[in-house]
Amino acid sequence: MAGTFRRRGCKCPPERKRCTCGAKWYYRYDITDPKTGKRKQKEIGGFRTKEEAQDAATRIQSELLNGTYVELKKKTVGEYLLDYVENTLKQEVAPNTYEQRLAFVENHIKPHIGAILLAELTPQQIQKFYNDLREKHSAGHVQNIGNLLNKAFNQAVRWNLIFRNPFSLVRKPSTSRKNTKIKVWTTEEQKQFLNFVAGSGPHWCYTMFLLALTSGLRKGELIGLQWGDVNTKDGMVTVKRTAVIANKELYLKDMPKTESSIRSIQLPPQTVKELKKWKVACPTNPLNLVFPSPKTNGILYPNSFDKRFDSFVKGAGVAKISSHGTRHTFATTLLANGVNAKVVQEMLGHATIKTTLDTYAHVLPNMQKDAAKQLSEVLF
């Protein structure tokens, strides 16, 4: 095979038959410059084994023979990712998703591995990158960054910018929540909170937070809810959209978080009753929102939602949880009272039941005790 192979920077003693220092293999070959007609040497490397370097060499020589060879560009990881997000991914995703992915590149990827050449990034460097991120961020956040990188590097392989995707060799942090403790309210705390809001807040706030605790809707889904999505006759609410922020503007996105997020939820009679009362009092607004902003009559900003929620939590004297904690509280209450996990999954809009079971694993031991007790009562 044309070209030569070498292991660069090996620090192992000469008498050692096998390299254990992690030195990488490189392949050096000749190409003809199409502009000058002169031959010049090129080298690619960063391969873990000689076999990997030989595979790359075979591919290069094949492309040189059939005229499809494209010279690898010496782009850094940061340069490539910015170009990929701006010119490729931007056309495929919603504006808020594009902004989030761009923030991943600027805030996380560039500071850690952005200066490394695209073709020389190693699995070891990636693993360290994941470990460093995991010290400051959740496993889910690191997973999302890893998903972006894996997708971008798969595209780099298809574009002949690199010969292999090193991210496919590294395991991303698990997003399992089995050992994560979720803060939720007891039924007594829920009653205490709702009683306080009913006595001190405007009726729309009471209705909104009552709906949150009895439907499991996400914050964006509550804010984006329109009266056309509420069937007070059948006591159903349908989730069709969510409120998102992109380019510093708040707007309604027709597709919620996932396809499974489009769902219909049966409401308790008490919640339906409050929605009927609020529908009569609700101000007319251009988007026909169930909970329009009291200041602008448009979409309620998520931070305004959170500020009101935090204020009521403090006033009610209940345990401090985030506004998303109402969703966790809804699910935990149902599971703890024997509602089938599959039903809870559908009401929450989770893509798989595994997500539901992993998220609310802390409820399962008590459910198993109740099941064993019921079995005992039936058989003995």
Automatic annotation (TrEMBL):
<dbReference type="GO" id="GO:0003677">
    <property type="term" value="F:DNA binding"/>
</dbReference>
<dbReference type="InterPro" id="IPR028259">
    <property type="entry name" value="AP2-like_int_N"/>
</dbReference>
<keyword id="KW-0229">DNA integration</keyword>
<dbReference type="Pfam" id="PF14659">
    <property type="entry name" value="Phage_int_SAM_3"/>
</dbReference>
<dbReference type="InterPro" id="IPR044068">
    <property type="entry name" value="CB"/>
</dbReference>
<dbReference type="InterPro" id="IPR013762">
    <property type="entry name" value="Integrase-like_cat_sf"/>
</dbReference>
<dbReference type="InterPro" id="IPR010998">
    <property type="entry name" value="Integrase_recombinase_N"/>
</dbReference>
<feature type="domain" description="Core-binding (CB)">
    <location>
        <begin position="72"/>
        <end position="157"/>
    </location>
</feature>
<keyword id="KW-0233">DNA recombination</keyword>
<dbReference type="InterPro" id="IPR050090">
    <property type="entry name" value="Tyrosine_recombinase_XerCD"/>
</dbReference>
<dbReference type="Pfam" id="PF14657">
    <property type="entry name" value="Arm-DNA-bind_4"/>
</dbReference>
<dbReference type="GO" id="GO:0015074">
    <property type="term" value="P:DNA integration"/>
</dbReference>
<dbReference type="Pfam" id="PF00589">
    <property type="entry name" value="Phage_integrase"/>
</dbReference>
<dbReference type="InterPro" id="IPR004107">
    <property type="entry name" value="Integrase_SAM-like_N"/>
</dbReference>
<dbReference type="GO" id="GO:0006310">
    <property type="term" value="P:DNA recombination"/>
</dbReference>
<feature type="domain" description="Tyr recombinase">
    <location>
        <begin position="180"/>
        <end position="373"/>
    </location>
</feature>
<comment type="similarity">
    <text>Belongs to the 'phage' integrase family.</text>
</comment>
<dbReference type="InterPro" id="IPR011010">
    <property type="entry name" value="DNA_brk_join_enz"/>
</dbReference>
<dbReference type="InterPro" id="IPR002104">
    <property type="entry name" value="Integrase_catalytic"/>
</dbReference>
<protein>
    <submittedName>
        <fullName>Site-specific integrase</fullName>
    </submittedName>
</protein>
<keyword id="KW-0238">DNA-binding</keyword>
